[in-house]
Amino acid sequence: MFVVLACLVFSAETHPKFQWKKCTKAGCTTVNGFLVHDKHIEGGTWHRGGDQLDYANEVGVVVSGGTVSQRLVSTYKGSKITGSRIYIMTEDEKYYEEFKFVGKELSYTVDMSQIPCGVNAALYSSEMPYNGKKTTDDPFGAEGGTGYCDANCVDGDCCPEFDIQEASSHAMVFTAHCCESAKHCDTSGCGYNPYRDSKDYTFWGGTINVNSPVTVVTQFVGVGSTLSEIRRLYVQGGRTIKAAQSLNDAFCKWGGAGQNAAYSMAKMGASFQKGHVIVFSLWASDGMSWMDGGNAGTCKSYNVASVKASQPNLKVTWSNLKFGDMDSTY
Questions:
Q1: Which helix (H) or strand (E) holds 116?
Q2: Does pTM top 0.85 for this prediction?
Q3: Active site amino acids
Q4: Is residue 134 over pLDDT 80?
Q5: Smaller CB count within 10 Å for the chain: N or C?
Q6: Under 8 Å between Cβ of 73 and 66
Q7: In sequence order, which ranges of the chain are alpha helices (DSSP H)?
Q8: What residue spans define the domains of the chain?
């Protein structure tokens, strides 16, 4: 009887199709992958069964070709769900797509125009297991959205993380997080925010028009697994704009004499060489001043409950994700 019930409860997930591009200097080719939502949603863990996840209505994720949008609030069967966290899967729909960043670049276009104070539109990567984490309760591994880990040790699982962007329409920061052990990571990490670190109060929202889509390019400078620098470019309105600061050991105060040798560009590069999974995330909190308030941005106050009530359909839209050789994706 137990075996029969288990078969009824668990069935494979139907995932949205998602296209991205793999590029060389000779051009780009389309990869026909998929997206999968994390096993968790606001309010607890849910398990896939005969009642498949309704991506558009239940978690506000709408996918068309290479474009994906994430809605802030979804009301489904009487429950309200805030945000979403989704991963790119391989073409065979069995595993997470792994990206080895050193010596490569990643680009995508994002529309941040609807993202207010307290809402974080994040695109990042973590050293998640490519096959997820199968358990008795979650037997599908990556197909079931399991195995999440990050530098904040969410759910007790720690791993290196690179925040390609954490942003609202009021601030933008990119941050590297190393780990020195399976249970201890640099939770603060080393990041660059033009408002905070260069006192450039008009970069995000002035130099970069946050009311229009912008292409974000991140270059991982290095050879093999040896990472030396992470650069950032923005492309908008026919202009290519280089961020004033790159991430490197000198800026981060990593790896030198008297510094924690566990945290360095080399350590970050070694993690990238193992393979990182790309994460799209939208979430909200009244405690977001580290990102876009105080010395980090223009936000003066936070009221996420009000935002959810007045702007439940606000969304972030990602498109045209490309990965490949330096200067080949934009």
A1: none
A2: yes
A3: 161, 166
A4: yes
A5: N
A6: no
A7: 2-9, 55-58, 194-197, 249-252, 265-274, 289-292, 304-310
A8: 93-325
Residue 302's pLDDT is what?
Answer: 97
Q: Does residue 276 contact residue 269 with C-beta atoms inside 8 Å? A: no
The count of other CB atoms within 10 Å of the CB of residue 216 is 25
Residue 10 CB neighbours (<10 A): 16
The pLDDT tens digits for 189-228 are: 999 999 999 999 999 999 999 999 999 999 999 988 899 9
Which DSSP letter does residue 155 get? Answer: G
pLDDT at 2: 36
CA-to-CA dists, residue 151 to 76, 125, 186, angstroms: 31, 11, 7
Task: Report the candidate in 220, 223, 241, 239 with the shortest Cα–Cα distance to residue 231.
Answer: 220
Yes or no: say if 259 and 253 are a contact pair by the CB < 8 Å rule: yes
Tokens linked to 198: 């260069």
pLDDT tens, 161-198?
A: 999 999 999 999 999 999 998 899 999 999 999 999 99
Is residue 10 within a helix (H) or strand (E), and if so which, with residue range? none
Question: 328's torsion region: left (phi>0), alpha (psi -120 to 50) or beta?
Answer: alpha
